[in-house]
Write a structure and sequence with these properties.
This protein is mainly β. The chain has a single domain, classed as Porin, CATH 2.40.160. The chain is globular, with a radius of gyration of 19 Å.
Length: 138
C-alpha cells in the first residue's frame, strides 16, 4: 500500500473515531444489569398530573446485550425486555402491554436512569434514577 493510501486510511479511521465517541472500546465488557433496582420515578401526564412514587425493578436475566425483567405497580405487574446498545451506556426496553418506550442510561456500576415516554390519548413522560440494591432479583 502506498504512503498516500495509508495516510488516507489513517485519516478515515480518525474521522470515524470522532463520529462515534460513545462507542465502547473493543473487548469492553457488556454491563450486567441483572438484579434489583430501586428509586423514585417522577412522571407527568394530562390525566394524572405530576406524580412521584417509589419503583422497584427486577431484571431477571441477561444474555449478552439482551435482558428481561418486570416491575409491579398500582395496576399490577409489567413484564419487559430490552437491549443494551453497543456504547455500553444506553439501553431501551419495551413491554408487550405498553404503547411507549423506556430509554435509559447506565450512570455507574450501581446506578441507572430510565425514562418512559408514551404519546396519544394516554400521553405520559417520566424518569427514574435507580440504584442497584441487590445483584440478584428478588
Amino acid at each position: 500500500m502506498s504512503s498516500r493510501n495509508q495516510q488516507t486510511l489513517s485519516g478515515l479511521f480518525a474521522v470515524i473515531g470522532l463520529l462515534a465517541p460513545g462507542a465502547a472500546q473493543a473487548g469492553e465488557a457488556i454491563p450486567n444489569l441483572v438484579g434489583t433496582w430501586s428509586g423514585k420515578v417522577n412522571t407527568i401526564s394530562e390525566q394524572k398530573g405530576l406524580k412521584t412514587r417509589e419503583r422497584t425493578i427486577q431484571i431477571t436475566e441477561q444474555t449478552d446485550r439482551r435482558f428481561r425483567g418486570f416491575f409491579t405497580y398500582e395496576d399490577g405487574r409489567k413484564d419487559f425486555f430490552g437491549v443494551v446498545y453497543p456504547d455500553n451506556t444506553s439501553f431501551t426496553w419495551v413491554s408487550p402491554t405498553s404503547k411507549g418506550y423506556n430509554h435509559g442510561r447506565i450512570l455507574g456500576p450501581d446506578k441507572i436512569s430510565a425514562c418512559y415516554v408514551e404519546s396519544g390519548a394516554d400521553a405520559t413522560a417520566g424518569c427514574a434514577e435507580l440504584s442497584k440494591v441487590s445483584a440478584k432479583p428478588e
